[in-house]
């Protein structure tokens, strides 16, 4: 029986079935389709402008490693004119973050990009290991999510970045859409599907998601076939119980219909364009650290106070947890 040919080029042997479209294609056509779609997202969503400094959130995980590789490739291929930097956050998790940072440092040498590492210990006076030792594992993701988001902003600010690029993929965004829908949090439901988020108030920088329509399975395949160097171990403190339910739901419907992930994102985009669902929030600067907040103190300062006063974080802080680039 003759080998099946790639449906795109009809010349090379098909070696994989593309998760997003179910097409049987060869490696070279997969590379082209993968990279071209990310380029289309960058162009169609106006993610970058020539001359901008872009801080790429680098965790050493598959998503951020592929993001660094593809952004550098596309920046040179299409002459975006971007100045790329790597920014990593050291949460202080022994046996996990120290190993993943080794992968980041290897990538920094391979791609010859500047690297800035910021740590929880220098910013907040606590490591995640110390936080978990003090409060246990039940609420640790609340602290880590808030601290990590602000730490990434601080690192990007240090290198003089104009924007932050994160490795959030289509699966991540679809999961967040489902989570916010189940919580009834429509302001976040609207924001989470945007390819560019952020505000000029305080120290927050715009964040861009070049992988907005890129499937996680395809990122894994790309990293595998390109033999990229990444750290594959999940965070030891990251059970993510509620997100786990949303993730399983997305995986289940993807089996039945591959387009379900993108369709979920498109549905959230419809909310964004409906004026009846618009929500404006007034933001100011934290009186303690200057970071953006809608209250007197930002969430990071409130959580730090709770650590120092032996109080548990309030529900408002815990419900604002968003998945950052951690492990991405």
TrEMBL record:
ATP binds at residues 57-59, 63, 89, 167, 172. InterPro entries: CTU1-like_ATP-bd, Ncs6/Tuc1/Ctu1, Rossmann-like_a/b/a_fold, TilS/TtcA_N, tRNA_thiolation_TtcA_Ctu1, UPF0021_CS. GO terms for cellular component: cytosolic tRNA wobble base thiouridylase complex; mitochondrion. It comes from the Eukaryota. Residues 308-328 are annotated as: Disordered. Transmembrane segments: none annotated. It is found in: Cytoplasm. One of its GO terms (biological process) is tRNA wobble position uridine thiolation. Plays a central role in 2-thiolation of mcm(5)S(2)U at tRNA wobble positions of tRNA(Lys), tRNA(Glu) and tRNA(Gln). Directly binds tRNAs and probably acts by catalyzing adenylation of tRNAs, an intermediate required for 2-thiolation. It is unclear whether it acts as a sulfurtransferase that transfers sulfur from thiocarboxylated URM1 onto the uridine of tRNAs at wobble position. This is Cytoplasmic tRNA 2-thiolation protein 1.
């Amino acid at each position: 029986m003759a080998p099946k040919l790639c449906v795109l080029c009809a010349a090379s042997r098909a070696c994989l079935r593309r998760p997003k479209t179910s097409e049987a294609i060869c490696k070279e056509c997969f590379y082209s389709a993968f990279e071209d779609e990310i380029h289309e997202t960058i162009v169609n969503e106006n993610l970058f402008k020539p001359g901008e400094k872009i801080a790429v959130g680098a965790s050493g995980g598959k998503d951020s490693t592929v993001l660094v590789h593809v952004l550098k490739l596309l920046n040179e291929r299409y002459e975006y004119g971007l100045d790329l930097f790597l920014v990593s956050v050291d949460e202080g998790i022994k046996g996990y973050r120290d190993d993943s940072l080794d992968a980041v440092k290897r990538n920094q040498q391979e791609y010859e990009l500047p690297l800035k590492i910021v740590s929880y210990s220098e910013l907040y006076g606590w490591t995640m290991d110390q936080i978990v030792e003090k409060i246990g594992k039940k609420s640790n993701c609340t602290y880590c999510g808030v601290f990590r988001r602000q730490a990434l902003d601080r690192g990007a600010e240090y290198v003089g970045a104009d924007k932050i690029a994160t490795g959030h993929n289509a699966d991540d965004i679809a999961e967040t859409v489902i989570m916010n829908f189940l919580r009834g949090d429509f302001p976040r439901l609207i924001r989470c599907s945007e390819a560019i988020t952020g505000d000029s108030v305080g120290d927050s920088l715009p964040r861009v998601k070049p992988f907005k329509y890129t499937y996680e399975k395809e990122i894994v395949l790309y990293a595998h076939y390109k033999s990229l160097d990444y750290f594959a171990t999940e965070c030891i403190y990251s059970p993510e119980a509620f997100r786990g339910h949303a993730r399983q739901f997305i995986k289940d419907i993807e089996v039945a219909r591959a387009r379900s992930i993108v369709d979920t994102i498109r549905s959230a985009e419809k909310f964004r364009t409906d004026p009846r669902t618009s929500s404006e929030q007034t933001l100011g600067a934290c009186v303690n650290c200057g970071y953006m907040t809608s209250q007197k103190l930002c969430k990071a300062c409130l959580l730090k106070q709770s650590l120092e006063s032996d109080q548990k974080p309030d529900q408002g802080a815990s419900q604002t947890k968003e998945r950052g680039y951690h492990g991405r």
